[in-house]
Amino acid sequence: MSGVVRQDGPMVLPRAFALLRLLAASPRGLSLSDIATRLDVPKSSLSSTLKALADQGYLARERALYSLGPQSFALASAILAGKTISQIARPSLEKAMEESGESVLLATLDPDGAHLTYVEIAESPNPVRYAVPVGTRRPLYATACGKLFLAERSEQARRAYYETTALEKKSDATVTDPEVLEGQLQVLRESGVSITFGEYSADAAGFAAPIRGAGGALAAALVIAAPITRGRREAERFARLSVAAAGEISGILGGASTEGREKPRA
Q1: Please, what is the Cα angle at 256 between 183 and 251, to 5 degrees?
Q2: Does 71 or 77 have the greater pLDDT score?
């Protein structure tokens, strides 16, 4: 029996999955050198993996750039078929809850266009925490998630919303002036995260980020919700975690990266 042990055999599947994840996050494609550098794999051993995946249609190659092929998208569609966004998002919500220590909620836009509904929650185990039942509805103007939905609309659509919606105070901090709201929406477009302190519930803070589906359309919103004292103390970290979790779900849904994406119309 030879004393030579092959080192690449057991690594083929992990390497292939790492490669697919990398290309899923790089829709414009990557060269062999780029892939080898990012995965820290010798080009010589990577070439056979690339060829095998390309031959099966899981990768496409154009002008020396590799990207996901039609079989990758077909596989993703088959996996996601029949799953609700709540089921898809649940693992990411749980992960964000564990990392933040706070409750993490998933919100979708209601058919009336004026409210959102929390359709899933990973509730914090902390004795003092933010929690609402699944199915709870909230107005868009007074919530971190709601402002994300508003920010996606054209100026004309937002003006129509302001004219037809009673912008009532929910707490002392609720913003009811459309011009002030417009300023907040511009800030969140630039930052990619919506932050509120006590605007609906006086003792709660929210850190929301967009979840995008195919084509970059806003599919849902994820919010880390915390007691306001902890929210102020951990604002930067909670904002960062919400963006990361929402981005993870967007990646599963085939959503476009927010990097380099055209801003919504002001």
Answers
A1: 115
A2: 71
Hey, what domains does the chain have and what are their CATH numbers?
A: 9-79 (1.10.10.10), 82-253 (3.30.450.40)
Tokens of 212: 């995008």
How far is the CA of 231 from the CAs of 65, 119, 131, 241, in angstroms? 44, 22, 14, 13
pTM of the model: 0.72
Beta strand 204-212 pairing with 59-62 = unpaired
Rounded to whole angstroms, the Cα distance separating 170 from 158 reads: 20
Encoded tokens for 25:
């996050």
Return the residue matching tokens 């009532």.
168
CA–CA gap between residue 60 and residue 71 (Å, rounded): 10
Residue type, 264: P
pLDDT in tens, 228-265: 999 999 999 999 999 999 999 998 887 754 443 444 44
SS (H, E, C) the chain: CCCCCCCCHHHHHHHHHHHHHHHHCCCCCECHHHHHHHHCCCHHHHHHHHHHHHHCCCEEEECCEEEECHHHHHHHHHHHCCCCHHHHHHHHHHHHHHHHCCEEEEEEECCCCCEEEEEEEECCCCCCCCCCCCCCEEEHHHCHHHHHHHHCCCHHHHHHHHHHCCCCCCCCCCCCCHHHHHHHHHHHHHHCCEEEECCCCCCEEEEEEEEECECCCEEEEEEEEEEHHHHHHCHHHHHHHHHHHHHHHHHHHCECCCCCCCCCCC
- Where residue 223 falls (left for φ over 0; alpha for ψ -120 to 50; beta otherwise) is beta
